Amino acid sequence: MGEVLILVLRSRRFMIGAVLFLTVLAFGVIGPRIVHRDPFQMVGGLFDSPSEKAMLGTDNLGRDVFTQLMYGTGTSLLIGFVAGVVATCIGVTVGAVAGFKGGFVDELLMGITNILITIPSIVVLILLSIAIRSRSAMVMGVIIGITSWPWTARAVRAQTSSLKTREHVDLARISGYTAVELIIKEILPYMFSYIFMAFILQFSGGITNEATLSMLGLGPFQTVSLGVMLHWALLWEAVRTGAWWAFLPPVVFLTITSFSLMLINAGLDEVFNPRLRKS
Amino acid sequence: MKNLLKAQDLKAYYRLVGGTEIRAVDGVTLQLRPHEVLGIAGESGCGKSTLAAVMSLTHNPPLRVMDGLIMANGSNLLSLPPEQVRRKIKGTYISVVPQGAMNALNPTQRVRNFAIDMLQEHHPEMKKSEATDLAQSRLTDLSLPVRVLDSYPHELSGGMKQRAIIVLSTLLDPKVLIADEPTSALDVSSQRSVIRLLLTLLGEGIITSIAFITHELPLLRQVADRIAIMYAGKLVEVGTMEEIIFDPRHPYTKALMGSMLVPEKHVREQRIEAIPGVPPDLKNPPDGCRFHPRCPRRQEICSREEPLAKTVGDRTTWCWLMQ
Amino acid sequence: MVLANAVTQPEGVRLLLEVENLTKIFGSARNEVVAVDNISFGIYPGEVMSLLGESGSGKSTTARMILRLSKPTKGRIIFKGQDISTLKDIDYWRQVQMIFQDPFSSFNSFYSVHSFLGKAFRLTNNHLSESERTARMEQSMESVGLNAAELLFKRPHELSGGQRQRLMIARALLIGPDLLVADEPTSMIDASSRVGILNMLMDLSRKHKMSILFITHDIGLAYYTSDRLLIMNEGKIVEEGTAEAVVDAPAQPYTKRLLADVPTLRKAWDEEQELA
User: Fold this and answer.
1) Cα separation of B41 and B223, whole Å?
2) Are strands C48-53 and C33-43 parallel, antiparallel or unpaired?
3) Contacts C262 to B, Cβ<8 Å
4) A246 within some domain
5) Residue B139: pLDDT above 90?
6) What is the ipTM of this complex?
7) B-interface mutation test, from C52, C146, C192, most B Cβ less than 10 A away
8) What single DSSP character describes residue A22?
9) Which of B188, B268, B187 is nearest to C243 (CA)?
10) CB distance C272–B196 less than 8 Å?
11) Half-sphere exposure of C1 toward its Cβ, with a 13 Å CA cutoff?
């Protein structure tokens, strides 16, 4: 374990990713607790350009873009996190059961998974978002999570069906372990790094999905997220009127967040898959 | 007689994260003579594979050569520039079949590509068809099926894969073939066909000598002219096959020979005893003779001082009992 | 003197385990692979036997069926007079246990030696207190020559291959089965420790009247340890007999060929000399 930690900390990709991500996290989560500003408060006119009063100008309703960005980042991270947790939990459960049981159960679960993969998840997302009346950030996260688990399930299934043939699994079996115990105690621990990496990808995907949905106007109610900011900026033609401060900051933050998570993932990949490691 | 290859006072250590060193090969001097099969035997972790890697110049970090020479034709191969080693030595003077080579074949490529890559490494101007032709005629000469070139690795049996690799690795007629456990994990019949091939390569003069690394002494009894026994990073005894197999002198060689389970009467007539204890940790090997903690005949000096080499005829022994 | 346990089975001694017309077919109807092809044999109480075959002979599949890790396609396995498919898993595994080949992959690297051995108590003595369990673990470790005080709380990766395989035997001892199936127990163990482990298994068999079925490709191992040998090839048992009979005077062509290809110490391979 110690050696893994040393390798992780030595990975330049991981460290750059982690520093970027922690910065975004601090900005979006700790920031609002320090400044205590209402993101919905009007501080100026329509698309005021950046000034001393509003560092990043104002949006279409005269609200401070900087404050919105701070709260929006927090919301987007929350949605991404919830989506990641939900998708990972479902994906791991489905994948592990299918891979371990094999046979009919496997075919059934993988059939469902493959159908969900074929239907563009954005369609399901839109339908679900329309169907659900109350859309808090939490609910958004859950919706995104339950549409994005299939890839994790497929990957976990493949790993499980190879891990289950290992001798320690057989040994536990002839020691009287039940199927659930075998999965939890003998198989999943060996996939921990893998599952963690899948979670990071889902986290990143969740943030992007939120942005997409929100831009279409299906975002969370009564709160601001990076996607919601983009939605209003596009609706009020910020791009055409040259109000770059209304859409560029959320785009930059989305990019940085995804990029940092990708870097973290690549860094971990390097450590966990020694073949990718350079001497 | 001039040696084809000689390791001189070779020390090769693995350096791990955190700075610890595993002294896998710790002062080995060993010659490979022309027209011989030299068996290098020992238990896992004794350093035989490390020695094979360094002698074939295929060692990579974390394994480093700390000291010593690999001599051939009067020059130290370890001091040659890597480019020259790659172009002038590997494949043409020394070829290696590393441990598990048959499972390292690229599963998505036909076996032919292994030969093409190998040949183009040395003759970049060579066309793919020429390389294939060369491989084909060599396989035919050795009465092996030519179809292996068009096969994917999974279509071939383990024995056939291993034989194909050996043939393709020696297309450039290297003087020395270093084969690391070329027959482990094979059935006895395939094992024998691999051995037969190696001996044919020698007999036809395609290669001049073989260093055969294995943990199976009964196999060396069948193929080796000389045998070197390694223990804990050092040689303990080197001699002709007959000397080592039928008249071992070093207590370790004796114990090892005595613990071989072969289907022969003596095995069933008495209880065979294991060597007590386990091989030492090469991060921190014992002082003196490395075998002394397990040796039934250890003396006071064995734990203090390293035994000196004692040579009588073809046999060299590193043991205080022989002094 | 013959040291392997003698097979003087008096008339009327019941077989411990009987395999009847056992068949295992893998794959679909169109592309089927017959791994085990209608084999029958029996093991007496206290007997040491080897199922000997090369890779792909079906010997490991047979072992897995005996352990109920795989279902036979046809045929049945009778243990102490009862068809094992009618027995409860736990009851069966209390009496029939296995030692696996790979001392590395047969340990879950996330658990210590203590919890590895602790698993054995699920099958027997589940009511024991923690201190009684530990005492028994220590006792079984000492009886396979492991220092319990030093090793009990180590992780598998801190142990050598030989130590792990001894632990595997210690685990079996805690369960105390009547039949131990040992699937290539020493193929990944150094020559110098190999004999020690085999001697230990043979001694335990004698002491506890435990039958051992070695599953192996190693004729030397089988010859050294076993009362009887079964030679398996392409899913079928081609020859059966006492170790001496099979090795010294093989009757079947396959067995003869196998023995001719095994490198031995005293004799050289015939035609190789000419080639060299």
Assistant:
1) 13
2) unpaired
3) 188, 218, 262-263
4) yes
5) yes
6) 0.86
7) C192
8) H
9) B268
10) yes
11) 4
Structural domain includes residue A273: no
> Locate tokens 């010294």: which residue?
C248
How far is it, in rounded angstroms, from Cα B129 to Cα B133? 6
Residues in contact with A270: Cβ distance below 8 Å, sequence separation at least 6, in sequence order: A11, A13, A14, A276, A277
List of residues 6+ apart from B243 with CB closer than 8 A = B249, B314, B315
Render pLDDT for C180-194 as a digit per residue (tens, 0 to 9).
999 998 887 877 788
A53: DSSP letter: S
B82 to chain A, any CB pair closer than 8 A? The answer is no
- Evaluate whether A227 touches A211 at the Cβ level (below 8 Å): yes
Which residue of A168, A173, A174 is in closest CB contact with C108? Answer: A168
Is the domain defined by C17-262 classed in CATH 2.60.40.10? no
Q: Do A168 and C69 touch (CB under 8 A)?
A: no
Q: Do C102 and A172 touch (CB under 8 A)?
A: no
Which chain C positions have a beta carbon within 8 Å of B267's beta carbon?
220, 223-224
Residue A135 lies in a domain: yes
Phi and psi at residue C265, to the nearest 5°:
-90, -40
- Please tell me which of the candidates B187, B200, B267 has its beta carbon nearest to residue C275: B200
* Residue A144 domain-assigned (yes or no): yes
Helical axes A192-215 vs A121-131, angle rounded to 10°: 60
d(CA B197, CA B177): 12
Q: Do A176 and C105 touch (CB under 8 A)?
A: no
CA-to-CA separations, C47 to A52, C50, C56, C201, in angstroms, rounded = 92, 10, 25, 12
How far is Cα B175 from Cα B288, in angstroms, rounded to an integer?
A: 37
Asked if C100 lies within 8 A of A167 by C-beta distance, the reply is yes
CATH number of the domain enclosing A137: 1.10.3720.10
Of B201, B199, B202, B229, nearest to B48 (Cα)?
Answer: B229
B285 upstream amide cis, omega within 30 of 0: no
Contacts of C224 in chain B (CB under 8 A): 261, 267-268, 272
B60, closest residue in chain A (CA to CA): A279
Confidence of residue C50 (pLDDT cuts 50, 70, 90): very high
Q: Is A174 part of the contact surface with chain C (CB cutoff 8 Å)? A: yes
Instruction: Give residue A108's domain range.
Output: 29-46+54-263
Q: Which residue has the higher pLDDT, C191 or C114?
A: C114
Determine the distance from the C-alpha atom of residue A260 to the mean position of all C-alpha atoms in its chain, rounded to a whole number.
12
Q: Give the start-to-end residue ranges of the domains of chain C.
A: 17-262
Kindly report which listed range (A263-267, C2-6, C111-115, C272-276) carries the lowest average pLDDT score: C272-276
pLDDT tens for each residue of C225-260: 999 999 999 999 999 999 999 999 999 999 999 999
Kindly state the average pLDDT of the residues C194-200. 90
Question: Which amino acid is located at C4 in the chain?
Answer: A
B17·A279 Cβ contact <8 A? no
Number of structural domains in chain A: 1
C97 - beta bridge partners? C180
Contact between C154 and C112 under an 8 Å Cβ cutoff? The reply is yes
DSSP letter for C157, please: G
> Which CATH superfamily does the domain covering B5-104+174-322 fall into?
P-loop containing nucleotide triphosphate hydrolases (3.40.50.300)
Q: Please, which chains are in contact with C (at least 3 CB pairs closer than 8 A)?
A: A, B
CA-based nearest residue in chain C for residue A173: C69
Domain residue ranges in chain B? 5-104+174-322
Beta strand C74-79 pairing with B94-97: unpaired
Q: How far, in Å, CA of B53 to CA of B47, rounded?
A: 10
Q: Name beta bridge partners: B90.
A: B94
B218 and B227 Cβ atoms separated by less than 8 Å: no
